[in-house]
Amino acid sequence: MRYGPETLRLSALPSTASAAVVEVWRVKLRPTADRLACAWQSLDERERARADAFRFEADRVRYVAAHGALRRLLATCLDLEPEALRFVQGAAGKPGLDGDSATRLEFNLSHSGDRGLIAICRGGPVGVDLEQIRPGFDYAGIADRYFSSEENARLRRAGLCTVREFFRLWTRKEAQWKACGLGLAAVEEETGPAASAGWTVRELAIAPDYAAAVCASGSHWALHCMPFGEDD
User: Fold this and answer.
1) 3-class SS at 202?
2) In angstroms, how far is the first alpha carbon of the chain from the final one?
3) What is the pTM of this model?
4) Is residue 64 helix, strand or coil?
5) Per CATH, which fold does 5-227 belong to?
6) Which regions in the chain score pLDDT beneath 50?
């Protein structure tokens, strides 16, 4: 099924997704049966196998919806069919586009709960992270392992908002790691670049119970955050 810009309301994408612009698209992961079927048809064998591996049906639906939305967005950007896209993985598992399109478009996907975010940029790496804030979440071990002394001090000062502050700080870190193409193993081994050199992280207001951030290289880029077609 062909998804044109008029169907997805994505007419801004081809003209604005440039090296100086980062676009973040908000996606709700509660698809109708028809939308879910279309998303499934666009996935490749690897994606379908991963979807089928989920234990719970709700997780499978969210995965299919998120990756189907990613394919629809990228296909619109590149004037291709969603199922024609071919993905490759970097050394730390960060996905990219195979073929000529890989030099023209950078993207990143994150989803948590029933929401997703897709970041798109032309000409530069981008990372995005989204986390549903879960009251009572046991963050102590993660903070001890990955947070700096300054970040842990911020947690101690957060009082009743400690869990919210943890997710705010965590999404900022994850967005940058993803933009750099780093996995947790590389971070633990300190093989990646300096914490903030050459990168700008911006927080996103998605919903009251979510924390989110996007990261791109340099500092002179505009941020556009928009709903994905009829999905928001």
Assistant:
1) strand
2) 21
3) 0.86
4) helix
5) Ribosomal Protein L22; Chain A (3.90.470)
6) 1-17, 189-194, 232
